[in-house]
């Protein structure tokens, strides 16, 4: 379910400038920034609502119906021709898709605490494979198929998730969600808001370069097609897969997984990408991919270190709120920044954001990274 969701929901993310230009004749970068920010705002507001509507033993049943609604709205988005109607339908679709995020705390509730790091590592594999496949699929859609087919593929992804939910319910797998019912009565776990603040700044920095990277690559390498641009966009995801394998195989590389080292590496990677030379941009994406993977896994593991099973869903909802505020601000500012200073400017702002993240590390009083040969994350 995670793999299908990531592929379907990210395939258009780096291509929205081209999508709006081709389908609706809108070329203003601020419009793309506003739309991607609206996606984050809707998801941010919808997840707490789904958390409160969740009933004991009802996670999969809730997802069954919300993904059905999302799939129908995806199909509708493929056929509308008015921009305002596309906004209305697609953002309503995002509200239903946001319920899918409940699968994360649901999974963590059903396993022993000693297995959390391993599970987060496995989910990281799925997410990174999904980002690669999503970027490549988006490039194929824009290269060979009519643009509206992208939303039909998203609907196909929802259909697969519906089938999986139905199969799990029939197999009696709806068993671990009872803890979610008590989440509202659990107080905020210690350190959750401090962690959320750090994640807000980190996600602002990480997603600053997402919406306009393909446009940036096409500007610095105009002879390359959109398909190659999608592969360059996916480099950090591929680097994350390599990082996961190295984490598991070589415990002596613990120094290369430290948060301070990875933040410095990420800053260097972003500055290299801002230089405008294709070769250095590729190298910068490799550095940024390593840093992004290590930092994301470490920060995610901290959520469940600081929470308890009864509060997983509620604490994850709080953290997701911070994350989405960061992404929302990032997307909107990226649209404004590209409009004012060109598609290379977001890399510099993202680097400044990682500098701020580095300065905020003391608020966590975080222990050393957990990744070892025995702990694959």
Notes on the structure:
By secondary structure, this protein is mostly helical. The protein has a single domain (2-363), classed as Growth Hormone, Chain: A, CATH 1.20.1250.20. Helix content is 73%, strand content 0%. The protein is built from 17 helices and no strands. Helix 4 (59-77) runs antiparallel to helix 5, helix 7 (116-144) runs antiparallel to helix 12 and helix 13 (235-249) packs across helix 15. The longest helix is centred in the last third of the chain and has 30 residues, at 312-341.
Itemize the secondary structure elements and their pairings.
Layout: H1 2-10, H2 16-24, H3 29-53, H4 59-77, H5 83-97, H6 103-109, H7 116-144, H8 149-170, H9 178-181, H10 192-207, H11 213-220, H12 226-233, H13 235-249, H14 259-273, H15 278-305, H16 312-341, H17 345-360
Low-pLDDT stretches = 176-186, 366-377
Count of separate structural domains:
1
The shape is: globular
What characterizes the major β-sheet?
none
State the secondary-structure class: mainly alpha
Assembly classification: single chain
Q: In percent, how helical is the residue content? A: over 70%
CATH class: Mainly Alpha
């Amino acid at each position: 379910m995670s793999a299908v969701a990531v592929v379907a929901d990210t395939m258009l993310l780096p291509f929205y400038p081209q999508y709006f230009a081709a389908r609706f004749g809108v070329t203003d970068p601020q419009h793309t920034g506003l739309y991607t920010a609206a996606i984050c705002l809707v998801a941010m507001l919808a997840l707490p609502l789904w958390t409160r509507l969740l009933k004991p033993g009802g996670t999969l049943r809730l997802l069954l119906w919300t993904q059905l609604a999302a799939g129908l709205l995806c199909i509708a988005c493929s056929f509308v021709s008015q921009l305002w109607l596309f906004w209305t339908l697609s953002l309503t679709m995002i509200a239903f898709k946001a319920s899918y995020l409940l699968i994360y705390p649901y999974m963590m509730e059903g396993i022993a605490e000693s297995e959390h790091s391993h599970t987060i590592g496995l989910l990281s594999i799925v997410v990174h494979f999904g980002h690669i496949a999503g970027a490549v699929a988006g490039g194929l859609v824009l290269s060979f198929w009519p643009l509206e087919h992208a939303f039909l593929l998203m609907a196909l992804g929802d259909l697969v998730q519906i089938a999986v939910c139905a199969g799990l319910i029939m197999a009696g797998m709806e068993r671990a969600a009872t803890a979610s019912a008590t989440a509202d009565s659990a107080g905020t776990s210690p350190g959750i808001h401090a962690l959320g603040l750090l994640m807000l700044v980190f996600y602002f920095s990480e997603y600053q370069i997402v919406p306009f990277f393909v446009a940036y690559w096409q500007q610095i390498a105009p002879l390359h097609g959109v398909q190659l641009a999608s592969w360059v966009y996916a480099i950090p995801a591929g680097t994350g897969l390599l990082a996961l394998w190295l984490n598991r195989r070589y415990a002596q590389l613990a120094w290369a997984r430290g948060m301070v080292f990875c933040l410095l590496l990420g800053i260097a990677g972003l500055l290299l990408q801002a230089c405008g030379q294709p070769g250095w941009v590729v190298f910068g994406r490799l550095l940024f991919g390593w840093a992004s993977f290590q930092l994301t896994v470490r920060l995610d593991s901290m959520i469940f270190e600081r929470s308890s099973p009864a509060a997983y869903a509620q604490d994850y909802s709080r953290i997701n709120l911070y994350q989405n505020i960061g992404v929302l601000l990032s997307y909107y500012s990226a649209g404004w920044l590209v409009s004012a200073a060109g598609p290379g400017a977001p890399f510099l702002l993202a680097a400044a954001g990682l500098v701020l993240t580095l300065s905020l590390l003391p608020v966590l009083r975080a222990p050393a990274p957990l990744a070892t040969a025995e702990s694959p994350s």
